[in-house]
Specification:
mainly beta; single chain; two-stranded antiparallel ribbon; twelve-stranded antiparallel beta barrel; globular
Length: 366
Amino acid sequence: MKRIFTLCALVLAAAGLMAQTETPAEPAAGGVWSTSSTPALKASEFLYHNWSKSGNSQIDVTGTFFGNYKYTHPKFVWDNIVDLAYGYAWQDLDNSTADSAGGLFETRRKSNDKIDLSSAISWNAYKGWGASFTANLKTQFGNGYEYEGIGAAQTQTLVSGFFAPAYLTTALSFEYKKTDWSVSLSFLTGKTTFVCNDSLIAAEKTYGVIQRDDFDVTNPATFTHAYFALGSYVKAQYLKKDIVPNLDLYARIELFYDYKKPKNMGWADIDAYDGVTDPASSKYVLADGEAWTDLQNKGWLAKRAFETDLDFELKLDYRLSKHISANLATNLKWDTDFSGMGKWGHWQFYQMAGVQVFFSWKTPKE
């Protein structure tokens, strides 16, 4: 609850500052700022008590913030996006202590958690083509857990946390840019993965942060908390207001391939694997249901496609009134550095649909 209220306070404070500017911004050195800030609060509630059809009583509260801040100059464009979300769902509200182990596990579950900050400066060269430098940081606010078991027998295992993992991507790219969309391609991209949690590293949840040869799970002094990858990067982004009346669309897809990864993962040893024991020099982590033979059967190109990280996101917002909208958000990821929970393996999927109360401030005003 403290995190939710803190996020909401920050959102409203930032929104208040944006709201103070109600007139078009004056050009500065030939450029002009155009900004859009949209804080929102989503809430849903279900209550069942002595209900013959049964049901699961729950309350869900999520705070979100989406901001787009663009500085347009005759020679360049500086585009910034802030995308934040945090929410909790309280379930089984009328359960007894015997039913839910004192409410520790079934009563409260995190429903959303996101920090995504992007900044890009681009220079136009010829008919929409140009160069750009981009920086992006992705992480989360709070801890994430994997839950196993039912009722009072349920347990939770820590799988993630703030800056565990976090991804900082910087790229110098060729870019094709239009008003509502852009595509960038970079063959010189740095992606740094951070895992700043010794408990996760000791549990071998390293998210691809390669540990040193003297790695000892009982000795945090041997832990490595960051891994720098150099690779190629493709990003396509689309942000369109009113694709049809009152409907906004935001779509993004990112692909990243690490030039160093195959060597670090010990592909040659995997090819020679005899099916009895794991190759000692390989740092690859198998996903649920995956076998070393699955990797043996992949050719050179297939292995590199297999190791390419994918991140796809889609958001739709339909404005029902000035401060109420219906929304749908989907996020699909493929990352072989995540060993997976359940039967999804390296695939990660998130989907949310609902109705929210929102406020939007823009400069210049429409």
